[in-house]
Amino acid sequence: MDIRRIDDRLSVSPQIDADDVAALAAEGYRAIICNRPDGEGADQPSFDEIDRAARAHGLEARYIPVATGMVKDEDARAFAEALRTLPGPALAYCRSGTRSATLWSLTEARDRPLPDILARTKAAGYDMSGVARRIANGGKTPTDTGDAQYGVVIVGAGAGGIAVAASLKSREPGLEIAIIDPADIHYYQPGWTMVGGGIFEAADTAKTMGSLIPRGVTWIKAAVAAFEPGANAVILDGCRVVKYDRLIVCPGLKLDWHRVEGLVETLGRNGVTSNYRYDLAPYTWELVQKTRSGTAIFTQPPMPIKCAGAPQKAMYLSGDHWHRTGRLREIDIHFCNAGGVLFGVKDYVPALMDYVEKYGATLDFFHNLVAVDGPAQTATFEVKAPDTEPRRVTMAFDMLHVCPPQTAPDFIRVSPLADAAGWVDVDQATLRHKSYDNIWALGDVMNAPNAKTAAAARKQAPTVAENVIADIRGVAPKAQYDGYGSCPLTVERGKIVLAEFGYGGTLKPSFPKWFIDGTRPSRAAWLLKEKMLPPIYWQAMLRGREWMARPEPLEKVAAE
User: Fold this and answer.
1) Which parts of the sequence belong to the FAD/NAD(P)-binding domain (predicted)?
2) Which residues form the domain of 436?
3) Mind listing the pLDDT tens digit for each residue in 407-420?
């Protein structure tokens, strides 16, 4: 038997025989649901045979036959009633298991989020994307045919989404564009490190979403539930459907706080904080000011994460404050990194190591945070160093700054747009989807091997805009993204190591070395971060002004 578990109450399988029932009973199943009509196959046992075998072994059986490709709403209601009244766990079967998995999906539509349903069935080997609209519609067949249609639909109104919309409008003012995003507030996330270091005010990193949507662009304030790339459609929560000629996907990534046991319950108290959340970054600064002795732990999860330098930025700014206030000798700093290097581009490591030594920080490599006990103020790490047996260590703390594990959003991971790891699958040069010619992606959600930073999105947005316009005009892609990303590493108040690099760790400095040598801490880089980058973000990047971000011509990059 090929039994595939869906949840605690139901498993599904391809066709079973009467001889299989004894094994099902032995495994603890208490009911069987047959979704295959009798006589569909020549060698198929009848439901009566399965029913007799079930009763002989103390199981109940229910017959809910469904014709191939014709799962009706009343079939889903009958299946729901069977699950409600039959003892569990139950096994449902048809020829392949697909009809049974479909019925479960429609049954659960009112109680589970669509991405969860798609993820559970996908894990069991069944693709439910073909009935995503029905699931989003509460399990019922949609009757709404008034779908909206746009030339370009952009999913996500973060840095990448608004920037690419503005860049498109600057090139083609008459283009009909819609941005889909449920958020009311847009955040300048690169500023949160500075909030946690007492330099910026949190309120200065937030603006209302409506004030930033480019003029002439329609804002659809809703969440995306699923994609139908074959039908050029995006399905919203509630089963509204938005159709497109071209689609740009940039919803960012998911901060998976729940993956660390006990973390959610203690965030914002017991000395546990994170600059990865707007409401917690001020608490980071509060803790830094209050901490006078003890142990301060800063964590970094496995890659990929947004702004890979942010976890250690928090450490450096905290250490700098303790150094300036004469407390550093009384504080034991630990940087617990799930990886094996301080920074992925080796050219910047010597300057960073100088500050690690200055602050007396201990580098605990291959330490991945897996649990936090807030009241006891202890953090547990899984240690997986090369050529050693995995082990767990628990460390006491007075202050704990957490960088959470990060994944692609659920509705992306289960979609046809995702690669095996769950990220949108694009060509790393043109940022066009590898399977769907009218879809592009940018920002943190795609699988190009670049640093996930706002600076990267600033370069990607014009590239995508240029290539979308080229496609509209019926010509080949014109622009290429070279993997540029920037990470201003705030090593102390007033100095920054400005890491700028592209694919493969190639250095990509924006300024002459006499002005800013990115491999050394500099005051000029600090002024860039503190004074120039915020207005560049709000006034240039989000308005389609591509200062130092014009796309590289495809021919030029190819020639290099």
Assistant:
1) 152-263
2) 149-253+408-559
3) 999 899 989 999 99
Q: Residue 40 has which token pair?
A: 């569909």
Whether the pTM exceeds 0.70: the reply is yes
Per-residue pLDDT band at 426 (split at 50, 70, 90): very high
Is residue 448 within 8 Å of 426, Cβ to Cβ?
yes
**Residues 6 or more apart whose Cβ sits within 8 Å of residue 327:** 291, 292, 293
Among 112, 136, 160, identify where a domain stops: 136
pLDDT (tens digit per residue) in 117-138: 998 999 999 988 888 888 888 8
**β-pair type (185-187, 206-208):** antiparallel
User: Looking at the domain assignment, is residue 143 inside a domain?
Assistant: no
- Cα–Cα distance between 323 and 454 in angstroms, integer? 30
Q: Same domain for 86 and 158? A: no
354 assigned to some structural domain: yes
Region 379-403: what's the mean pLDDT?
Answer: 95
Same structural domain for residues 118 and 221? no
How many domains in the chain?
3
Catalytic residue check, 403: no
336 catalytic residue (yes or no): no
In the set 34, 94, 336, 487, the catalytic residue is: 487
For the domain that residue 193 is a member of, what is the CATH number?
3.50.50.60
Residue 142 inside a domain? The answer is no
Choose the catalytic residue: 239, 250, 307, 403.
Answer: 307
pLDDT band for position 146 (50/70/90)? low
114-123 vs 98-107: helix axis angle to the nearest 10? 160
- Residue 442 shares a structural domain with residue 484: yes
Smallest CA-to-CA distance from 248 within 177, 152, 171, 312 is with: 152
Q: Which of 87, 232, 88, 206 is nearest to 148 (CA)?
A: 232
313 and 383 part of one domain: yes
SS (H, E, C) 220-251: ECCCEEEEEHHHCEEEECCCCEEEEEEEEECC
Q: Is the pLDDT of residue 286 over 60?
A: yes
Whether the pLDDT of residue 26 is over 50: the answer is: yes
Query: Residue 445 domain-assigned?
Result: yes
**What distances in angstroms separate CA 197 from CA 189, 356, 496, one per listed residue?**
14, 17, 13
Q: Are residues 400 and 286 in the same domain?
A: yes
